[in-house]
Automatic annotation (TrEMBL):
Compartmental location: Membrane
Name under which the protein is recorded: MAPEG family protein
Keywords: Membrane, Transmembrane, Transmembrane helix
Pfam families per record: MAPEG (PF01124)
Family annotation (InterPro entries): MAPEG-like_dom_sf, Membr-assoc_MAPEG
Any one cellular-component term (Gene Ontology): membrane
Keyword Transmembrane: yes
Organism of provenance: Pontivivens insulae
Length: 142
């Protein structure tokens, strides 16, 4: 396996780990809130948006966020592997994207400064753009 594809696949596994981490920490925050009787199970049975603590909602929003743009990472790396079109740009784009997702999560569940979070999000989109442009070049040049 080429080094560039190995790097891109490592980024996929890191993003999957980030998703699991987000789901687990969201569950912990939810359970803690219920255990403290800040929110009852009945209040959230039909809508998890009813969790009262800001922390539980931030964790929840971040976990949901891990199912939005990461699909573009997964699809791009899968195509690069399937079409033998991996190159340095694909690997670089994947690294930029996953680094931005880690930063985005830290901001999202930490200070939650929207301007900082937005910059991290845009950096991730730039990483995805690099990945997909490099993938296109890899397919054409093949």
């Amino acid at each position: 396996m080429e080094l560039t594809l190995s790097i891109a696949l490592a980024c996929v596994f890191l993003q999957v780990a980030l998703t699991f981490w987000s789901i687990i920490t969201m569950g912990q925050a939810r359970l803690k809130e219920i255990a403290r009787k800040q929110t009852s199970v009945g209040e959230v049975a039909l809508s998890p948006r009813n969790f009262s603590s800001e922390q539980a909602r931030a964790m929840q929003n971040n976990a949901h966020n891990q199912f939005e743009t990461p699909i573009l990472l997964y699809a791009g790396v899968a195509l690069a592997a399937a079409l033998d079109a991996s190159n340095a740009g694909v690997a670089l784009g994947a690294v930029i994207y996953v680094a931005s997702r880690l930063l985005h999560r830290a901001i999202h569940v930490g200070t939650n400064r929207v301007s900082q979070r937005f910059r991290a999000f845009v950096l991730g989109l730039a990483g995805l753009a690099v990945l997909w442009l490099a993938l296109g070049v890899g397919i054409v040049i093949g």
